[in-house]
Amino acid sequence: MIGKIKSCIGGFSLFNYVIDDEKGMELLRNNLCGETSIELMREMQIIQNLNQKATNKLISMVLSPHVDDGEKFSKKQLQNLTKEFLKELEIDVENSQFIAFLHTEKRHRHIHILLNRVDENGRLLKDNYIGKKAQWAAHRVAEKNGLISAKQIRIGKIKASEDLTSDSKSLRKEIYQKHLKVMESTPITMEKYLAEMLKKNIKFIPTINKQGELQGFRVRDMENQGEMKASEVHRNMGLKILLDSGLFFKDENFSLNNTMQKLNQVNSQKLEKDWSNAEKKNNSFSSSNIFAPSPCIVDHTEDELKRKRKKLFKR
After folding, report:
1. DSSP state, 250?
2. Claim to verify: residue 7 and residue 143 sit in the same structural domain
3. Sheet harboring 110-116: ordered strands across?
4. Helices 75-88 and 130-144, interaxial angle, to 10°?
5. Global model pTM greater than 0.70
């Protein structure tokens, strides 16, 4: 059930739209005796003229039960719902001047209510936050009668969204922890990184832009099939950040934009240079050098021989 309400100037077009026998039937009225829409409007204006300060002297309301609920209600039940709705809005249903008209031209039946905002003493019905009040009034009426409430549906959707957000947050944390574990093993190439992540049931799906270039990756958890952008999991898992960390594509499987292509080449060339320097360093140590005498070692062999000869001579 939905409740809508607003204060307005009113006029013949509004009365003529609401009070139309081709659209439905009159449901309820109070302190009115006119038959046509123009007669009802002028009858309300007699009391409205008691207040010359206000501009919006009419309150227009719509009470709309859920489609399934509206079809099963009798006229009497709809009249009771209308009265309950007005009472929830603290409107005096015995002394106020109003008419309620049921529109049935569509499957979604709804009730239009035109209420004189000015009472017989010229006082105005307060309209502060009246839209919010109507929503909650309709919600309370629905709860009392075991009907479907728009407010409850909205609350349910918000709760479901919050649960989904909580699940998504947990999934992002789990995937990022796997990313950190893989990065601790210091993969050199992007291919190695992607392969290690796949071993942990995390699949990277390439995102290709209109130019045919690799824009980034979507990440899918193979266990629960949850999927999102890699950068949504954590900014450090975005393609550019991964390339900034030193990873690079060994094989040209993907077309990269100019910035990422340059970064990929720099990382590849840096690794090749490191390997080349390591090979040169290893080749500088030959097996013969290992056994070569060190200039820091003093040979005492000749001195020892002289000492022994001197000892024999004394004998």
Report:
1. S
2. yes
3. 2-8, 58-64, 110-116, 98-103, 24-30
4. 130
5. no
Same structural domain, 144 and 256: no
Q: Is residue 160 part of a domain?
A: no
pLDDT per residue, tens digit, the chain (315 aa), is 888 999 999 899 999 999 999 999 999 999 999 999 999 999 999 999 999 989 999 999 999 888 777 777 888 989 999 999 999 999 999 999 999 999 998 888 899 999 999 999 999 998 888 988 988 888 888 888 887 766 665 665 656 555 556 667 888 888 999 999 999 998 988 889 999 999 999 999 998 888 888 888 999 988 877 888 888 889 889 888 888 888 888 877 778 878 788 887 887 777 777 666 666 666 654 444 444 454 444 555 556 655 655 555 455
Q: Are 155 and 167 in contact (CB under 8 A)?
A: no
Burial of 248 (0-12, 13-18, 19+ CB in 10 A): buried
Q: Residue 217 belongs to what domain range?
A: 169-277
97 in the same domain as 231: no
Q: Are residues 136 and 213 in the same domain?
A: no
Name the residue with tokens 């601790």: 184
The answer on 21 and 62 residing in a single domain is yes
Judge if 56 and 180 occupy the same domain: no
Q: Is the dihedral of CA 244, 245, 246, 250 positive or negative?
A: negative
Q: Is residue 312 part of a domain?
A: no
- Asked if residue 8 is part of any domain, the answer here is yes
Q: Which of 75, 97, 73, 66 is nearest to 3 (CA)?
A: 66
Residue 76 lies in a domain: yes
The count of other CB atoms within 10 Å of the CB of residue 268 is 15
Interatomic CA distance for residues 73 and 50, integer angstroms: 38
141 with 189, same domain: the answer is no
